[in-house]
């Protein structure tokens, strides 16, 4: 029996291709795993009304880790239109399967390392080496939203003047509400995970990203907890910045930052910004990590316009596999993947279109495998 069971979730679009390239490397490494395919993605929504079918949830309960490619997400109304006729009008609600997976399995850490590998012509600046810790289960992703506001709620809001007085005479279908919900527990565990990481990896600086000057209750709580937790980690110096200023500082002095920790939505935003600084989404890898399960993925989406062309850069996914190995405790194998990727980038001989080359997704997989 293989040492590890890995759920293999290609999803759709280019997700399928980038996972294929990654498999070449894991196989060459003799990673002792059984890969079990799981259905996820747009096709399953259209045919079954569920982009994350129950059988895939069962599978995820019984594996050590998962590799996930990408899925197509569409706005709610369009999603409803694409259901097969038998499923239309049944009140099925499309929700992103990756967000559901994060919440169902309590994958509360979204870990996104952003490192400028030397020789990558797409690097914004050299020496960028920072890690984003994004809270992954709550905040504006809580899923508590109202397209039509229930009367009980609109009555309460109408009483809360002056800030809500603009809603006073509005019919309840004239506004929508998305709730930002942040718990003490959810905030504390991501902040603690970031501090632990900083301490273990000799990182000296940790920056808390928020907007506590305006979003006082939720972000205020996040910042307050960060200040409490910081006391347990005297070797790490904590500072904080508003999300808007943070985007500016990151562009100005990215190499000054080491570890960033943020509530879910701000973490989503800054992780794309950071990925772009180290070469774009072709280089942004991500780990969704809980206490029992880790799901590893590229940060990019399914890029439907490139689907089937084997054109996109699989390095983000290959680096996600490296994160998976690290998380499983296979640090030597993880390090050899990273070194091989770094060499391929530095040599610059095999490059996909984003890097100015004309090699395919699988060429990169093969080139990395050759360096192992
Ligand atoms: C990400 C993506 C997802 C998110 C989307 C696809 C739901 O942008 O992983 O960063 O918003 O979390
Ligand atoms: Mg994102």
Tell me the CATH architecture of the largest domain.
3-Layer(aba) Sandwich
Q: SSE order, as H and E?
A: EHEHHEHHEEEHEHEHEHEHEEHHH
CATH class wording of the largest domain: Alpha Beta
Question: What's the helical proportion of residues?
Answer: 25-40%
Number of domains: 3
The oligomeric status of these chains comes to single chain
| Total DSSP helices | 13
Shape: globular
List keywords for this structure.
372 residues, alpha/beta, Isopropylmalate Dehydrogenase, Rossmann fold, 10-stranded mixed β-sheet, two-stranded antiparallel ribbon, binds magnesium ion
Characterise the protein shown here.
This protein has 372 residues and is of the alpha/beta class. It folds into 3 domains: 193 residues, 3-Layer(aba) Sandwich (Isopropylmalate Dehydrogenase); 105 residues, Rossmann fold (3-Layer(aba) Sandwich), CATH 3.40.50; 34 residues, no CATH class. It has 13 helices and 12 strands. The strands form 2 sheets. Strands 2-1-3-12-11-4-5-10-8-9 form a 10-stranded mixed beta sheet, sandwiched between helices. Strands 6-7 form a two-stranded antiparallel sheet. α1 runs parallel beside α13. The mean pLDDT is 95. The structure holds 3-isopropylmalic acid and magnesium ion. The site of magnesium ion (MG) has 2 residues, from α10. The site of 3-isopropylmalic acid has 7 residues, from α5.
SSE layout and pairing:
Blueprint: E1 4-11, H1 15-28, E2 33-37, H2 42-48, H3 54-61, E3 65-70, H4 76-81, H5 97-104, E4 109-115, E5 129-135, E6 145-146, H6 151-159, E7 177-178, H7 184-200, E8 205-210, H8 216-230, E9 237-242, H9 243-252, E10 259-262, H10 264-277, E11 285-289, E12 294-298, H11 315-327, H12 331-347, H13 361-370
Parallel strand pairs: 1-2, 1-3, 3-12, 5-10, 8-9, 8-10
Antiparallel strand pairs: 4-5, 4-11, 6-7, 11-12
Helix pairs in contact: 1-11, 1-13, 7-8, 9-10, 11-12, 12-13
The site of magnesium ion has 2 residues, from helix 10.
């Amino acid at each position: 029996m293989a040492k590890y069971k890995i759920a293999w979730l290609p999803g759709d679009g280019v997700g399928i291709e980038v996972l294929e390239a990654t498999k070449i490397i894991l196989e060459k490494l003799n990673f002792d795993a059984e890969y079990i395919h799981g259905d996820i993605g747009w096709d399953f929504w259209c045919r079954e009304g569920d982009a994350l079918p129950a059988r895939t949830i069962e599978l995820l309960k019984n594996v050590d880790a998962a590799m996930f490619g990408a899925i197509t997400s569409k706005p709610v109304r369009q999603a409803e239109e694409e259901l097969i006729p038998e499923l239309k009008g049944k009140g099925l609600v499309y929700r992103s399967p990756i967000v559901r997976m994060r919440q169902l399995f309590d994958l509360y850490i979204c870990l996104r390392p952003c490192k400028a590998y030397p020789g990558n012509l797409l690097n914004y600046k050299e020496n960028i080496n920072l890690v984003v810790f994004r809270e992954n289960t709550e905040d504006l992703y809580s899923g508590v939203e109202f397209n039509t506001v229930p009367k009980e709620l609109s009555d309460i809001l109408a009483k809360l003047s002056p800030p809500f007085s603009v809603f006073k005479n509005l019919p309840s279908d004239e506004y929508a509400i998305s709730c930002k919900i942040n718990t003490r527990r959810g905030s504390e565990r991501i902040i603690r995970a970031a501090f632990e990481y900083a301490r273990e990896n000799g990182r000296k600086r940790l920056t808390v990203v928020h907007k506590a000057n305006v979003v006082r209750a939720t972000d205020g709580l996040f910042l307050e907890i960060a200040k409490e937790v910081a006391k347990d980690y005297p070797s790490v110096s904590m500072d904080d910045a508003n999300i808007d200023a943070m985007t500016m500082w990151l562009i100005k002095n990215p190499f000054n930052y080491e570890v960033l920790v943020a509530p879910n939505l701000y973490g989503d935003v800054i992780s794309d910004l950071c990925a772009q600084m180290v070469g774009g989404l072709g280089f942004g890898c991500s780990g969704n990590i809980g206490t029992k399960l880790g799901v590893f993925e590229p940060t990019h989406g399914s890029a439907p316009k490139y689907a089937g062309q084997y054109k996109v850069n699989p390095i983000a996914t290959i680096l996600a596999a490296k994160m998976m190995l690290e998380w499983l405790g296979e640090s030597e194998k993880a390090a050899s993947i990273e070194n091989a990727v770094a060499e391929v980038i530095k040599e610059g001989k095999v490059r996909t279109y984003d890097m100015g080359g004309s090699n395919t997704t699988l060429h990169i997989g093969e080139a990395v495998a050759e360096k192992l």
